[in-house]
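To fix ideas, we quote verbatim a fold written out as tokens:
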Amino acid sequence: MMKATIGTCRHLAGVSFAALIAITFSGAAHAQEAPAPAPQQTDTVTVADEAPDTGAQERQNADIIVTGSRITTSGFNAPTPTTVIGAEQIANNAQPNIFNTIAQLPSLQGSTGAATGTFSTSSGQQGLSSFSLRGLGTIRTLTLLDGQRVVGANVTGVPDISLFPQLLIQRVDVVTGGASASYGSDAVGGVVNFITNTKFEGFKGNIQGGITDYKDNQQVLIQGAWGKSFGRLHVIVSGEYDHEEGVGPGNFGTDLAGDRDWYRATTLVNTGVLNSNNPQYLYRDFGQPYQYAKYGLINTGPLQGIAFDAAGNPYNFAYGSNGTPARNAAGNVNGCFVGFCVGGDMSGHVGSGTSLQSALERINGFTRIAYEFAPDNELYATVNIARVKTNNQPNPGAARTDLTVQCSNPYLPESVATACATAGITNFRYGLSNAILPNIQVYTNRRQYRFVAGAKGKIASNWNYDAYYEHGINITDIDVENIMLNRRYNQAADAIRLNGEIVCRDPVARANGCAPINIFGNNIPSTAALAYITPENGPFQHTKQTQDVASLNISGSPFELWAGPLSVAFGGEYRREYYRVNADPYGAGVMDASPNSAEYPADPLLNAVDGSNWYAGNYKNGRGRYEVVEGFVEVDVPLIDSEGAGRANINGAARVTDYSTSGTVWSWKVGGTWDTPLDGFRLRAVTSRDVRAPNLSELFAAPVTTTVPNFTDPRGSGQQVLIIQNTVGNPDLRPEIARNTEVGAVLSNPPWLPGFSLSFDYYKIKLEGVISSLSAQQIVNLCFLEGITSTCGAFDLDSDFKFVNVQSFNLASIKTDGFDIEASYQWRRPLGLDGSLTVRALATHVRKFVTDPGIPGTIPVDTAGNNTGATPDWKWLAIQTYENDQFSFTVQERWFSSGTFGNQYIECQAGSCPASTQNNPTIDYNRMKGAFYVDIGGSYNLNEQVRFYFKVDNLFDRDPEASPQTNTGLDVNPALYDTLGRTYRAGLRFSF
């Protein structure tokens, strides 16, 4: 497989033998350094990213500070690996959002963007672009702008990259290791630091358009930036507009958006048999949930199996697997599995109706004004005002599986009413996709107002200072449309005939405006009925977050030692985080939101105290804040500096942090580098203690209520039921503590191959006290299957509105290790041609990623190589660019290895399986193919000021692999796989 992949790269790129060596070196991991920094350089690594840059030699004298450390003195090399992505590589990738370019780095695993979370109604993370390093989650990656914190765009505290001023970004530094001692909380996986060009002068712009091969996700990007010096005053202004139409939604059944045909409703069906020679789970396409049909299905009792067509006529439902209804109270189907058959009538399946990518519109304005009050000293202020709107469709309709229908319902066909009488029943249980209702739509609107005032510069010749105050505000509104109120739907569906007229049975509901609906067939409800069931004012959540930061950092060299100057950095920071969230009274509870009573009038049939009346999107009210005071010191001690022994240093840092919620915690690091006597060969190592404090959501989460439509009740036959999941905060949480260790070697610009670099780094992370929660399924399973009675009080599965309460604790631990590799080479005048050929390859290998839930009855699970998650065994990125003065051409390959659905499964074949257990269930197939994507792009200078460019992503239109579900969701993993298909982009860049 690897040989074939590399051969394909060679064929497509047409690169030289030397370039192929660089690609081969990337058969693994990720990154850091290119040609060795010159002694006078202040960076950890050269900006070797700016792919086809013929001015690399001149750039070596630039005053670049790479963010692996707070020390900024000349000649310092930090031991923490850092990947640098420069402006040229960002431009060559031609993405509408810089987030998409950075997220392709192999060390970034599990990042979220417009293609993730589209199935969600209640999370509030639709379209939220945020990074995750090492697969540790977005909350454990610290994202900075010019080394400064950015207010969160979600109560988890993570910022939205879409709100950053992107045209002014001159490079992005990705610190792939623990950096809490240098930068503070959240830097457990590392740091992503966006560096803007604060000295920009002139005018530049970019106009770009794009579309997929399926004629959707039409995209328009317009950017402009202007900068000018007026003596000592320097002004920069930038603005941008980006509109991405999104993809989808699809429809019921297996009909995806556009002409995409890869959706197969792939499911892990549960046989329900644990102790036999046969596997418990079976990998099957076209999993058919047998609790409902598109226009209705009787799913229990003596009439089970009667379905209704669009005209409302009854017919015998076509169960897959040649199944036949058992006609018992549990609703089993003979010949089928727990909750599913295979094949049969798929018309009511809802998974394919999910949006494949959220529509996104972002508007960004940025201004920086600086005044140089003395040489190399400036006062500055920045204003960043931005807005991002997104929308998506979670699923079509609003499936219900647990309706109780009276046989006297006047809409029921007479033949079915007669069958009721014959069977001696007065009601039956009923399920339908609710295709008669308008589809749910979720709209988010994030607005950011960020203001920074600061001063930075030099004190004497050996000292630098950087002080700033930041005030950030993020206001996020989430509105859900076309969603039902469960109790009102139940009342409207329960019809009777009164005085010759069909009305709602309940007189209280009638008095409150209830109009009946016909749930047997494709009968679109009346305007009055829709206004009652899905009122115009649906669920909403209004969140305001504020962040205040005051920071002072000083660095310099107080004196010389035997091998060079002693370098130190020290400083302190104060930070205050606050949030307040208000929700609609039907979701949060009328008593908590009385100002909204005009739009949400009281209804005696709704729960006025606890809320949770909506089908989904039951947001809650809440607020919380915490304050942080911290100080740090970092020291670099040169140990040796001689021709015979090379050059070595030891670097250490310590930070003390006091949280108003959880007290004082320490973080530290110690490491060193050794430039060996071998020309261009460096060794480095670092170990650190890093922390992540609980965020506002974990501490003070407004209780969030979500609907889980296919929850497995473990009692009896394992019936699929609809439950309400309530997620609440825990103010007693403590900080997570991590131990990071990295050891690596770097070969930079050796005399035998100028322009070549290669680095290899091993990393190991152990994270204790991980803030995590049991899933609703785990809570219930632990009670009934494992006998752990402490979880039995957290749910009620016997009431009409079943619920499970979920809360976070410092329960779990994570252990992961692996290695990163980067190789790059720049060949000037390849084969005698003008210009240069630049090859760069980065890769990450995750050896293990073990999560121990810390729960009795559970065991640690290794998810490395689990391709339904975010940490494949191998992930790499290779880029080859040829450029001369007139044009450039780039080929990019993205690849990750094949894996499993879950490493906890035991794969076995019928007749040779061990007993299946909760921790190690058996399965008949447990392999999930990786993916190889090829992107191409190029540019052409129309004149000295204007450059045309194009880009094609996923050139061969590779479909995603199925990520099998045990429910009725979209069977794909957009965190790894491209779900959009071939995409074309083109545009013009200009500068004056």
